[in-house]
Amino acid sequence: MAVRSNNKFSRRSFLKVTGLAGGGVLIGFNLFSACKSDTEMPKDISELNFNDFNAYIKIADNGKVTIFSPNPEIGQGVKTSMPMIIAEELDVAWEDVYVQQAPLDTEKYVRQVAGGSQSIRASWEPLRQTGASARQMLINAAAAGWDVDPGECTTSNGVITGPGGNRIGYGEVVKDAAGLEVPEEVSLKDPKDFKIIGKDIRNVDINKIITGKPLYGLDYSEEGMLIASVLRPPAFGQELADFQKLENFDAIKKDHPGVVDIIRFENKIAVLAKDTWTAMKAKKTLQANWQYAGNPESTEDHDEILLGLLDGNDFQNMRKDGDVEKAFSEADEVLERTYESPFLPHNCMEPMNFFANVTDEKIHLVGPIQTPEGTANQVAEKLGRPLEEVHLEMTRMGGGFGRRLYGDFVLEAAEISSLAKKPVKVVYSREDDMTAGVYRPAIKYRIKAAVKDGKLTGYHLKEAAVNSNMYNLIPNFFPAGAVENYQVDVANYQSNITTGAWRAPYTNFLAFAEQSFFDELAEVMQVDRVQLHLDLLEKVKGSTDDRIQYSPERMQNVIKTVVEKSGFKNQQEGVYKGFSAYYCHNTHVAEVAEVVLENGQPVTKKVTCVVDCGIVVNRLGALNQIEGGIVDGVGHAMYGDLTFTDGKPESDNFHNYQLIRMMQAPKVETHFIENNLSPTGLGEPTLPVAGGAVANAIKAATGQRIYKQPFIKHLDTKEVIG
Amino acid sequence: MIEKPHRPNQAAEAAFSIQKHKIILTINEVEQEIKVDAWTTVLDLLREHLHLTGTKKGCDHGQCGACTVLMDGTRINSCLTLAVMHDGAEITTVEGLAKGEQLHPVQEAFIEQDAFQCGYCTPGQICSAIGLINEGKAKTPEDIRDLMSGNICRCGAYNNILKVVQEALERERS
Question: Which ranges form a coiled coil (chain B) (predicted)?
């Protein structure tokens, strides 16, 4: 049975169809908004213009389908999963679908952000509509040819079947279809009839990746391109005091053949050389003096300031239900705990880099960026040039994790190229990458709960964060709605250390804090920790509070399922289990971590994970995202730590900054809740849950509650061994 | 007080700085005569002089393993060794593993297990896995976990990479 679509995407202007000069048909569409109705479609795919449509489907005369997929790929698999959705509704065999990165060096791309686990969530409906509309037009063309009612025709794997045994392939009717009106209303498939969605589909770039083809920004080069290595202030709060270019330059050029130019811009100095090594080596010999223009901040300062904020009264209220103070004063018991997290660098495996060639005619930019549109705007503004002159091409990205939302390195490249009047690629060394920001900010939470007559009667969450506070939806996550007296307050301290989004912003640490707190609260209340969650969720059922973000039913379901699948309640000699559950990015997740003690050290051996993300588009890709999120969550909770002394980051490469390695990575067992609800985010939501599950398992194993990340630094291992 | 290092006169220094060293390397089965600076690492030689960008730069410290290649069948961090030290060596990079259209079994296993996300560490993981198999030390999954720990995967695809190596080891034994 098909589902008739009646939503806002059903309108003629949503997509446009045209016959191609070389045969076949081209369907242009806009993923996130209806495009202008007067937009012209190109007759030749070499003229594709991504200003008006941000994606195209080409159906060739032989029935083969090419999807020009424009979305940023940072390893989250949208370059595969988004075309899967189109192909499903178009009803073609996945083997006949070819996915092509939108052609480079033509017009400016207008593409959406890869971030916030939004890609699939935002485009699910438009993509289905697009595929279904194209399918309907092909049916209409075939039905007209046979002189039958389109309603009597069906499709399968790119072939239309009509009454009386008529059969015709898509390729044979594309020319006729191109002349038809785009249907106002189309039918979408019933999810039970899905043939591609929900299957294991391999990443479309896989062959290029495993054979080492140049896909990434760091692999990009152009004739005459110079490599720029940039000397930035060694500490946050510093600025360039003086730098004698001419004296220095001759000496450096002599010592380092290959150095072409040295350029001072803003607070930075760029060395331009013919190769990366020469540029980086020469940069190290630059003689520059730095002075503090702002506070030289150290980790001890941040600790003191943030704790001071938590102790103070200078908060902004985010949500207030009932009267928490009254609940505390009337409580039988009050539990108050403080949780502390460090700054974290993103440490994408591919260090930041970007190519820029700024000429009088245009600004050509190539590289890995999660926010191409916003970045192109920033470059135009910075160089005082019209946006039309900015041509930004995206490459595959060697990881994002939030870092590539910020185009600081693109601006550097554009500015250096503009000053040097040469094509340049800015390349960060690992040291540059780890010490130049942007970081996950240090945050502290204080949670206070009131218990009366065996019930949780009050809950007060306070956040003290560097630079910015939690976004508005978070105060409406669990346990909002489940506690009568509930309050969330935030405060921040403005630092000169640059901070920003880091995979699952705020929740990446908040989930650990709250889920550790609930584990301890259950002990104080002398109740079962799982039952405590289930009971609180029960109270939210039927709530009329439309601010509440999570579904209590879906949350209960993942919790009950993880308890069953992990054998959480079964005792196992030497294996200690920790439970945690969280909702973010529209996805409900519960995890159980299993910790054993090896040589007195807690080691996470396995994490069992239950996810409700609605319909799973690409099972293989989904499993990868889930496992990656958990390994990332365990790794950073255990080891991630960036400290500062006088504004200078104290780690700068992987010998003094620990990332989780294979020997430390837990096994992951994943279970999906099967339903037909629209798909939700997967790139982030399994990460926040992991820290709490591991911390609670460590408590079970060692008796120690850990209130600070990274765990490895704050766990008293002597006590464990003793 | 520490004595300043001796510095040759300017003319000698200029002459020294442009002197290149001739070496012969067999790279992906092609023997080549290459002129390199004394300080050029194998990684920079591959990426910037020979444009074999499949081998990745991740940390230049031998810590992340993204630059792993096979030298005479042994896995090495190509960022940690100088090209001039390897005159006569045979280097295989990720670009040289497939024989025509026929992928190396470890490459095939990477497809089978979908053992990557962003894919940046993948060439290093593949070369490291082949080197590990050549070493013949890994017997158990725990051995593999230990011996593959020189290669960081920031996306956390470790469990699938582990399956790749297990599968390849089993194929090797049979």
Answer: none
Single-letter amino acid, residue A357: N
Enter the pTM of the model. 0.90
Give the best-scoring range by mean pLDDT among A118-122, A170-174, A488-492. A488-492
Measured in angstroms, the CA of A670 and the nearest CA of chain B are apart by 12
Which residue type occupies A82?
Answer: M
Domains and CATH numbers, chain A: 3-210 (3.30.365.10), 217-293+352-427 (3.30.365.10), 315-326+440-721 (3.30.365.10)
Domains of chain B: 20-94 (3.10.20.30), 105-173 (1.10.150.120)
User: Is the link from the previous residue into A666 a cis peptide, with omega within 30 of 0?
Assistant: no
Contacts 24+ apart (CB under 8 A), A358-365: A358/A383, A358/A414, A358/A417, A358/A418, A358/A421, A359/A421, A361/A389, A362/A389, A362/A390, A362/A391, A363/A389, A363/A390, A363/A391, A363/A414, A364/A391, A364/A393, A364/A423, A365/A390, A365/A391, A365/A392, A365/A393, A365/A410, A365/A413, A365/A414
Question: Cβ separation of A75 and B118 shorter than 8 Å?
Answer: yes
Residues in A 330-389 with any Cβ partner in B closer than 8 A? 347-351
For residue A208, give how far its alpha carbon lies from the nearest alpha carbon of chain B (Å): 10
The count of residues in chain A is: 722
- Percent of chain A residues topping a pLDDT of 90: 71
A135-168 pLDDT, tens digit each:
999 999 999 999 999 999 999 999 999 998 999 9
Q: Are residues B154 and A667, on separate chains, in Cβ contact within 8 Å?
A: no
Residues of A in contact with B123 (CB under 8 A): 209-210, 212
pLDDT, position B108: 94
